[in-house]
Amino acid sequence: MSDILLDFNQVTMQFGGVTALNDVTLQIKRGEILGLIGPNGAGKTTCFNVMTGVYSPTKGSVSFEGKNLAKLKRYEITNVGIARTFQNIRLFSQMTALENVMVGADARKRSSVGGAILRTPRQRHEEKEARERSMELLQFMGIADRAETAARNLPYGYQRRLEIARALATEPKLLCLDEPAAGFNPAEKQELNELILKIREQGYTVLLIEHDMNVVMKVSDRVAVLDFGQKIADGLPADVRANPAVIAAYLGVDDHAS
Amino acid sequence: MPDWLIVRTFWDLTVTGLALGSIYALVALGYTLVYGVLRLINFAHSEIFMVGTFGALLASTQFLNVPLLENGNYPYRTGMTLIIFLVFIMLIAMLFSGVGAVVLERVAYRPLRGNGDSFGAIVLAFLTAFVVSLVFVDEAKINVIIALLGTAPISYAYLRYFKQGRQAPRLAFLISAIGASTAIAEAVGVWSKNGRDQYQTPRLLEKKTLFTMFGTDVRIDYVIVIVGALLMMTALTLFVNKTRLGRGVRAVAQDAETSRILGVNVDLIIIVTFALGGIMAGGAAMLFTLVYDQTRFNIGFILGVKSFTAAVLGGIGNLKGALLGGLLLGLVENYGSAIFGGQWKDVIAFTMLLIVLMFRPTGLLGESLGKARV
Amino acid sequence: MSQVTKVWTAFNGLFAGLGAQFRAMNKWQRYSVYGLGIIALYLLPYWPEVPVLGQIVNTPGSQFETVMNDQVIIFVLVALGLNVVVGIAGLLDLGYVGFYAVGAYVTAILTSAHGNLPWLLALPVAVIISMLFGVILGTPTLRLRGDYLAIVTLGFGEIIRLTAKNMDWLGASRGISNIAKPPSMFGLKFGVLDAKPYFYLGLTLVFIVIFILHRLEYSRVGRAWVAIREDEDAAELMGVNTFKFKLWAFTIGAGIGGLAGVHYAGKVGFINPDNFPLQLSILFLAAVVLGGSGNMYGAILGAILVAYMPERLRNFADKRVFVFGIVLVLMMVFRPEGILPKRVGNEHKKRKAKAQAGEVAS
Q1: ipTM of the assembly?
Q2: Residues A23-28: contacts with CB within 8 Å, 24+ apart?
Q3: Residues 6+ apart with CB under 8 A from A190
Q4: Does residue B75 fall inside a structural domain?
Q5: Which chains touch C (3 or more CB pairs under 8 A)?
Q6: C305 near C75, Cβ under 8 Å?
Q7: Is residue B168 part of a domain?
Q8: Does residue C361 carry a pLDDT above 50?
Q9: What pLDDT band is residue C362 in, cutting at 50, 70 and 90?
Q10: Could you tell me which residues come within 8 angstroms of residue B367 by beta carbon, excluding any fewer than 6 positions away?
Q11: Is there a contact between C333 and B351 if contact means CB atoms under 8 Å apart?
Q12: Subunits with at least 3 CB pairs below 8 A relative to chain A?
């Protein structure tokens, strides 16, 4: 089994005349937490979308465990083992928290319409298992007390955690979090860090886009930095933080000596 | 069939196809304008057309007092009288359709956009009271009286209950359109003099042959339709491209929010858009009665679907596309019915619609009201 | 708060109170209530004879059980099917009458015009063929944007009707007569005059359909449908094969529509293209939208309103399409979700799950 989970190889992504990603090469190793940072407009979200199979790269390739993602249909991505959350929360607002997670769990099921109508033993077994697993995930995320509340009625913190629970329900190998700390206060961000570490302990690999340095630097094993669609740094958090190119990208080049 | 007969029939079919297609094109403009600006399929546009035909009917029979038959003959007019009469009928038809379109927008769509106004509340209140009165009585005059009595209190309540500031889901717009379309058609079918039967419109124009081309006699009414439609479309294109309001229409079609921020009165633009579509439909309605001398409560439906097909075929949101689509559809329908038989005409149109939507949903010329190219 | 709001709140409170009492009952008590309800429904043809209830419920001008069967039961079946397509999966279908027509015509063809099959054999064949039409129509068109789908389905409905009208093999304008009747069963004879046996049969079909739909709703299929309706892209990225499930919704809806057509054909014995106009699609849609799209019981309520009210209030029978057009507009302006909105969560599983969560969390 290879050490490298996701191989992002010389990827260029163009939309019409705009080049969002320019020859980016990146690898995610099994079991690590990789942080992806960069100033606004650097291409993080595009990169994320290409990695999770939403876009097909204009040039280059993305492989997950050796499989080329470009060939997959969108709903097959979770099959392969990639799950994600969304920057602006996209829960199924009219379903309960439990049902939201169960939709994720359903991805692994084999029974379908016939089984549902006839309530075959396999269907009943799968349904029971999915329900139990989903409850476990809700407990893992600390939100089981509101399992039967409609998603749109949940407090913000619960909603964010619910999205993660739902993604985990698809039994991914790689969990991709898109700005999971947005809107959190410092205490909540600390909790989130602990949660991410807990998730990695369970055996998942994590990819994280974040703006908040407190979150990213503390929790990532490795950090990659994008600027204007190109990767400008890739390494340990401490090294990246001290990297002059990274500092320049965030703060701008200093024209006048102080 | 001898060769010359086929050729002759071919040109016949072409001329009539172009005339029919011109009517489709004019109505298609209404669909395409509203879709371009609001991304909404104005399902009730077909009834706006129908209302226009009834406007033409009223204009000639009531306002101009032209009878259906004069001493056993058609009530032909000639020269200046004819021109003035036709123009008058055209204007009245446009008035009916234009006003109808604007009323439709304010009653059935605007409240769903989250800015229902008192006009919409009043009309909805009247209709509500009318419908409720039907439960108890079925006497048109009494129903209207009860409705008028109930309008004031109900409209007050409605204004308070309008969901201001909240846009309804897309499906709701479509269903509201369907409801409005059904209600308008049924209202005419139930409460007009002939009910669901056909209405004859007086034939003012003697349908002589204007000239002969490729062995086919080209009738004057077909020529008027084609020329009239082209003139109206040119006027519309000039309006959209050269006037301030027209620029507003294109701006809102491209990006409503930005237009609003830049000071464009979006509500006014929407009214203008609907009015333009209505006026075009009114023109089409008058030309329709010119050629076919008849109308009925449900002609809107089939013509509407075909015109919508034309709009989609050419590229919805694209004015030139509406023209191209309309003419093309008219021709295909004619040729098709010559080959397969007249009764399959509608099936051909519907099938064309399905094929276009399945294989090229953006149409032949692509969507483009928002872009500079119109 | 205005007077109206106060009354409405009190009204809601009453129902909520009843609802709470109902949920508080244990399983056996609830099942007995269901049982009583079902028996009462089967006795529906006899309701007009009950003293006070009879006056309220009876339809002047036409025979009660005929109305109940020919109109109400048919509309209920259709609304249940259309609700799956429009309400649950969120696909606007304006040509549902097409599937209804297919069911009726296949029955007619197999039992009368071009065959001699008994009605009971024609039933499954007709339903399967309706479902096939659902697949044929759905496969190329379900990828379209919502508005376009509406127009395409409308075109489909009309194509079916016009094809039937223009093809002699389908009876053309004359239609097809001598359609077989359901066979005698359980002591019931299906003749020409008495509508009661048809009502019992129709009611049974309704219960079967409700049962199947209920099972679908509380399964991954139902969840997938709601997920697709809520946020199709997010659903796909969570592993939901949206196309497959949309097609299933469409197909199941088509099958139920066809089933309604089969029942209709068996009762009336004679059909022609004029029985399947566009206005009927509009009424079907009005039933679902009015009652509450996405909610099975809402659809049933809507069907009862649309089919029954014009008969009960004979006055406006010929104005019924007009009235429902206005009702559609008013509903969309003030309450697009319908009378009974979609329910959230699994009702009867609520208490069990609460108990579990309570145990584990503490």
Answers
A1: 0.88
A2: A23/A59, A23/A60, A23/A230, A24/A60, A24/A226, A24/A229, A24/A230, A24/A231, A25/A60, A25/A231, A26/A224, A26/A231, A26/A234, A28/A4, A28/A174, A28/A205, A28/A207
A3: none
A4: yes
A5: A, B
A6: no
A7: yes
A8: no
A9: very low
A10: B36, B315, B316, B317, B318
A11: no
A12: C
| pTM, two decimal places | 0.83
- In this prediction, residue C344 carries a pLDDT of 62
B111 to chain C, minimum CA–CA distance in Å?
Answer: 6
Q: pLDDT-derived band of residue C360, with 50, 70 and 90 as boundaries?
A: very low
Furthest C-alpha separation in chain A: 77
Nearest-neighbour CA in chain B from C346: distance (Å): 25
Put simply, whether C359 touches A (Cβ < 8 Å) is no
Residue B145 lies in a domain: no
Rg, C-alpha atoms of chain A: 19
Number of domains in chain C: 1
Range of the domain at C137: 68-275
CB contact under 8 A, A106 and C350: no
Q: What is the rounded CA–CA span in Å between residue B154 and residue B161?
A: 10
pLDDT score, position C5? 65
> What residue segments make up the domains of chain A, in order of their start?
93-162
Query: pLDDT tens, A30-44?
Result: 989 999 888 877 888
Residue C162 domain-assigned? yes
Tell me, yes or no, whether B28 lies in a domain.
Answer: yes
Q: Is residue C234 included in any domain, yes or no?
A: yes
B270: domain range? 3-116+162-359
Chain C residues in contact with B115 by the CB 8 A cut-off are: none
Q: How would residue B3 be classed by pLDDT, with cut points 50, 70 and 90?
A: low
Distance from CA of C285 to the nearest CA of B (A): 9
Number of domains, chain B: 1
Residue B195 belongs to domain with CATH number: 1.10.3470
